[in-house]
User: What shape does this take?
Amino acid sequence: MLIAVISGFIFALVIPLIMGWLKPKSTIWAAILPLSIFGFFLSKLPLILAGETLKISYQWVPSIGVNLDLYLDGLSYLFVLLISGIGTLVFIYTSAYLKGHHYLDRFYGYLSMFMASMLGLVLSDNIYTLFIFWELTSISSFFLIGFNNDNPDSRKSAITALAVTGIGGLFLMAAMVGLGQITDVYQISALAPLAESIQSNSLYGWVLFFLFIAAFTKSAQFPFHFWLPGAMKAPTPVSTYLHSATMVKAGIYLLARFTPILGNHEWWNSTLIIVGAITMTYAAIHSLFRLDLKGILAYSTISALGILVFLIGLGTEEALLAASVFILVHALYKATLFLVTGIIDHETGTRDIRQLGGLNKVMLPVGIAAMLAAISNAGIPPSFGFVGKDLIYDATLGMGDIAWLLTGLAIFTNVALLFAGFLAGIKPFVGKLPEKFEKLHLPSPAMYIPPLLLGVLGIVFGLAPGLIEGSIIKPTVQAITGATPDFHLKLWHGFNLILLLSAITIGSGTTLYFLLKPSEGLLAKVTRFEKISPQSIITNLANGFVGFSRNWTKFFQNGYLRFYLITILSFLCILLGYRFFTGVELYIDTAKLTEVSFYEAIVIIIMATAIFFTVFSKSRLTAVASLGVVGYSFCMIFLFYSAPDLAMTQFSIDTLTVILFVLVLYNLPRYLVLPDNNDKIRDGLLALVFGALISVLTLEVMNESVTKEISEYYAKNAYILGKGKNVVNVILVDFRGFDTIVEITVLTIAAIGVFGLLKLHLKSTEKE
Amino acid sequence: MEILLVIIIGLLYAAGIYMMLRRSLVKLIIGLILLGNGANLLIFLLGKIVKGKPPIIGASEKMLGEIYADPVPQALILTAIVISFGLQAFAIILIKRAYKVVKTDDLDEMNATDEDL
Assistant: This one.
C-alpha cells in the first residue's frame, strides 16, 4: 500500500527524464501507473467486503507523533478507487488531448504527484501526515492550474487557488494541533472512541472552526468558492480530475472522516447545513447564467459540493448514505461532462454554449457519452443519478420540522443542476450543426473512450446497484457512521412521494431548459452583483494589503543612506535615552580617575579643534589635514597611556590615509554646497544627542568592574609560552595568530580591490 | 583625564555621524574615519588606562608585574586600526572611481542601479 502511494512521487521525478531520453510518440503507457494502482486496490476488495480494514504503520518522527500510518477502510476505499480509476482515464485522455505538447512530461509529472498526494490524503491515518498530503494536493493543483504559464490569467488563477486552499491548509494544521492537544492521540482511527471527551472539551469549538475553514476552502464552499471557477483555466484533464472528481472532494472526505469524531453535535450539524445550503443554491443560480461550458460545469460542481456538505450536515444515516452514493454519482457524470467539454474545446476551439450545436452529426460517440452523463446528472431513470437523487430526497424528507424547507432547497438545486447538465451534455450535440463545424471529425479513441466508459458506468450502476452496494457503498457508510448499515439500493421504489418529487424536478428542469436560453444579457445582469461577491471583497483585501506593504516599504526603504542612518540612530537614541532616564543611576567614581597633566590637556584641546575643523571646513584639503591631526593626537594619547604599539600603528596608518586622500583629492569632486540649514540643524542635533549618549554610556561602563582573567593569562604566559616580551605582539602573532592571518588576507583582498579599481579601464559606454 | 577622553569620544561620534549624514561622498568617508577613531578610543578607555606601564615584560623577568596596561584592548585596537585602513583605502579609491563614472558627489543622485545611468 505504501508503494502505491509513493510510486506516484517517484514516477513524477522519473517521467521527465524518461520522456527526455526516449521522446515517445505516444504517452498512453503512462496510464499503466494509475491502472496498476487501481488493480492493486481492486484486489483488496475481498478484505473490504468482509468488513475488515487494512492498517500499515511506518515510524517517521515518533517523538512528536508524526508517523506514516496508512489505513484503508470503506471510506478511503471509495476514494482510492475514484482517484486511481478516474486517474487512469484522465492519463489516457491526456495522451491524446495534449499530444505533442512541449511540456507533456511535466504535466504527467504534476498529475502523478497529485495522484500520489491525493491517495496519501485519503489513506493517511495520522493527523499530521493528513495535513502534509493535504498541502501537497494544493501545491500540485497550483502547478496544474498554472500549467499554461504564459497566460497571465492562468497564473493569477493558480495563485488565487493556492492562496485560498493554502490558507485552508494552515487552518487544517491548527485543527489537527488542537485535536492533538485535547487527546494526545494522533491516529485518526483511534480518535472515534474519544468523541465524547473531545466534544465536551473547551477547545472543541476552535477545532471545529479550523476544520470547517479547511474543508470549505478545499471544497469550494461559500464564501471561499471563487477559486474553483478560476481554476478552470487549467487544461481540461486537470479540471476533470482535480476540480470535479477528486481534489475538491478532499474537503468532503475530511468532513466525512471526522463525522464519527466531531459530528453529531449541534454546531457541526447546523453549520454544515447552512453553509451547504447557501453554497448549493448560490452556485445553482450562478450556473444558470453562464455561457462558457466549463463555467457552467464549475458552478454546478460547486453546487454539487454544497449538496454533499449539506448532506453530511444532516448527519442522519439516510443522509450519509445519500452523500456516499452522490459522491460516486457526481464523480461519474461530472468527469464525463468535463471530458466531453474538453473534446468539444479541442475540436471546435470554442466553449461558448451559444455557438455549439449539432455535434452529434460529426462525433456521435462523444454525444452518446455526454447524453448518458446528462441523464445521470438529471436523475432520470434508469441512471445511477436517479438512485442518488432519490436518496437525497429521502434524507431531506426525514428531517422533521424543517423537512419541507430543506427538500425545497434540494429540489431547486437539482433543477438547476439538471439544467446545467442538459446545457453541457445535450445542447452542443443536438440541433443544427453550424457550417464551420461540418469538417470536424471524430477525435482519437483515447479521447472519447474514457468519457463513454464513465457515462456507461453511470447507467450500469443505476440498473444494477447491487454491483456496488455491498462492495463500496455499504463499507463507506459504515466507515462514516460507525454502525453496520441496513439498507438496500434500488432503482424502483414504487409510486411514492419521492418519485413524485423526482418527477417534478425532471419536469421543471426540462421546461427550464427549453425556456431559458443563455445570453449575454442575462450574464451581464448576474455579473453586476460581483461587486459585493466574496471574491471581490477578498481580492480587494489582498490588493489593499499589497498596497499597504508597498507604502510601508517605500517609507522605510527609500534608498537614501541618510534616511536609514537617521532612522536607526533615532531609534537607538530613544531606546538608550529611555533606559538611562528610567533604570540607570548615573555617577562618576572620582577616586578612580587619573590626573590630567598640562601636556595632555593641550593634546585634547588640539584634538577637539581638529575635529571641529574637519567637520566645518569648506575646503577638502583642510578637512583631510585636520583628520591627520586628529590621528596624530591619537598617537600622543596612546603614547601617554602605555600603548607604544598602537601609537606606532596609528602613526603610520594615519600618514598613509592622509597621503592617499591627498593623492586622489584632485580627482575628487568639490563639496556640494547645499543651502538647506534645517537639515544641518536636524542632523547636528541628532549627532550631538547620540554623541552625548555614547559619552554617558562610556562613563557608566567604566563604573563596572572588569574581569581581567584573559589579560592575566596573556600577561603570565606571553614569555613562557610565546617566547616574546611584548605582550601585545605575542597576542597578535602567536595566541591569536590565525586571526592575524585572516586579517592579512582581508588587507590583501582590499589591496587587490584598490589595484583593480585603479587599473581598470572604463569602457566607452561607461564613461558616458 | 577619563572625563576629557569621554568627551572626546562623544565628540568624535557626533562629528562622525554628522559627517555621514551629509550628502557628500567625501564627507561620508571622513565621517566613517572619525567614527572608527571614536570606537577605538572607546575600547581603549574601557580597558582602564594606565600611565607609563606598557605591557612589555622586562628584560630580566618572565612575566608582567602587578600593574600594567591591559594588552587585550590594545591588540583589538591594533587589529581595528589596520582593518579600518583597508576599508578606508578601498573606499577612497571606490569613490574616486564612482565619481569618474557618475560625475557626482551627491549621494542622493547615486541611489539608482546602473541601468538608469
Q: What stands out?
A: Chain B touches chain A through 90 residues (CB under 8 Å).
